[in-house]
Structures are given as structure tokens and as C-alpha cells.
Amino acid sequence: MPMSEEDRLLVHAYLDGELDFADALALEKRMAGDHALMTERDRVVALQKVLHTVIEPERPSPALRARIETAVGVRPRLRPQSFMAMVASVMVAAVLGSAATFLAIGSRPQESLADIVVSDHIRALMAPQSVDVVSSDKHTVKPWFNGRIPEAPRVVDLAKDDFPLVGARLDVVHREPVPTLVYRHRKHIISLTAIMTPDKPDAALRKRRDDGYNVVTWTEGGVTYLSVSDVAEADLEHFAELFRTTPADQ
Hints:
The chain is α+β, with helices and mostly antiparallel strands. It contains 9 helices and 7 strands. The radius of gyration is 21 Å and the shape is elongated.
């Protein structure tokens, strides 16, 4: 279900510190179980970081202040800090609604993709269930994506290699739903997100560490794969190599 404009504004107010303690706590509880709210929060936080690095802070002119007050429909008596927060919120909202979002975040695509899939992985671990469909059968998991996304991802059975399939879910990357397969290795969960990148050439395995999680990525056949887990780096790399080389019909 699409997020309402009221909820979107609540997320912005929360990040700007404009909610009181009770409302902020209530929204945090909602975000913990609402994928759309968490995605909006992560998107705005990422964009704010980019804006802070490329836009030098500047005090708004009286004309801009008057325009914003008119647009809001009130003339609030805000402290300068609060008014600056409102200006920043309006700027973020404007950028989110334009192609500038892609230009700002897309300038660092690898970092952006890794950050997003790590956030999705963490959010899934915090949820009551880390998958939308629970099944160890690839013939159940793959058809589940039909009708939800344009093309179902490649699914392989790695149970004999101690990487059993747990299920799958839909995540959101740059406002687009993307498939994520979920595997398990001993007590560790592995999220494998597949993003269509038809214009991107094949690329070998690449490793990095993000917020305490290992990330292994590669591109093959017009699809970029990002695997995320707190499993040991060598184990995640082994999983990626197995997934990459195991035939889907095996």
C-alpha cells in the first residue's frame, strides 16, 4: 500500500526533530514494523547526507522565508534553528520529488546500493519474519515473484552446501521493488538482492564491509547481485561463488 502524504510528512518532521517525545516514540514503533516508513526514513537520511556534502549551509533570505511561510499557510514564530530545519525539510521534499534524487545519490552508485541493501537486511532482521514468503523450495519461491516484479530472479538450491534457502521478500531500491532471496548458513541469515542493470558489464566478485556487515557484489548477465550477512567474509564469498556457478535447474 502506498504511503500517505501525512505519513511522509511525519517522517520528515521526525528527522527534523519537530515531534515531541511521545509522537516520536510512536512513529519509531510504527517504523519498526512498516517497510514503507523505514524506506522513506532511510532515503531522506541518505539524501540529507548528500545535500550536506554538496550544499554549503546558507541562511535563508527574507524573501525565501516569506514564500515558505505563505506555502505552509501560517506565520509560525520559530527559533532560527527551527526555521532552518523547516527550510531543509522543504528542500529535501522538493529534491525527493525530482530527478535530482537520482543525480545526487547516483553519483556514488556502489556505495548507495550497498548502503540500501544493508539497511534492508537489518530491517528484515528486526522484523518478526525476515521473508515475505517462507519456503526452502526454489519452485515455490521463484513463482512467488510473478506479478510482483517484471522478472523473477534466478534461484538456486544450495542446501547440500550448507546454505539452505529460507524464502524471499521484496525490498525497495531507488523507489523500485527488487527481489531479495534469503538463505541461511548455520545461525546466520544471508540476504541476496538482485537488481536489473542491463547496461552494466559483467564484473567479478567485490568485497566490502558496511556497518559491521560483509557485502559481496558481482554483476552477471545484466543483473547486479548484492549479498549481505554478518557471516564470516570467507563464508559469504564462498556462498556468492556457489550461487554464481550453480545451475538454476540443478
